[in-house]
Amino acid sequence: GKSIWLSRHGESIYNVEEKIGGDSPLSNRGLRYAEKLSELMESEVGDGNLTVWTSTLKRTHETAKYLPYEKLEWKALDELDAGICDGMTYKEIEERFPDDFRARDDDKYQYRYRGGESYADVVNRIEPVIMELERQDNILIITHQAVLRCIYAYFMNVPQDESPWMTIPLHTLIKLTPSVRGVKVTRLTTDV
Ligand code: F6P
């Protein structure tokens, strides 16, 4: 049967600086994950069939760059748009926009960044991706924390309003194999 592999992009410069959003490149550690991911996928699918889906952002392209498979980029896989908070640290947001910071904590699923998006918005915009995913064979999706939480919640039947709090660490490959008994989940961790 087919499988779906999910991964966040490798560690980015913004991840290291604890800034959200942006379009920064990978750190050296992130690039090492990109190499590891390619090795991992080659042992998973060999020369079998796989298509790699990325967002339009640099950090997902760089994470995909060693993978010798067909690639497709989706704007719908871009990270949740943090609007006026894009490029800030959570500490800066809390200092400059304390009301927004608290409002987001109170209802993280519905909270929409000013000039940006909410998790609910992301769930709506990834719907075509989910539809296409159901029709496809083996797919590896390299995307971002918020988007990955929404996709993962969909397949795991987790209520979407819980998705903003799910833990999806960097440098971990999640393999989903749908079957009649439900979705089998395997987490492949790396030493990067
Ligand atoms: O910090 C990485 C990141 O992908 C940010 O770009 C994004 O705003 C954030 O995670 C989403 O996570 P949360 O919804 O928990 O703030």
UniProtKB/TrEMBL annotation:
Substrate binds at residues 8-15, 59. It comes from the Eukaryota. The active site is at residues 9, 95. In the C-terminal section; belongs to the phosphoglycerate mutase family. This is fructose-2,6-bisphosphate 2-phosphatase. The lineage of its organism: Eukaryota, Fungi, Dikarya, Ascomycota, Saccharomycotina. The chain holds residues 168 to 359 of 396 of the full protein.
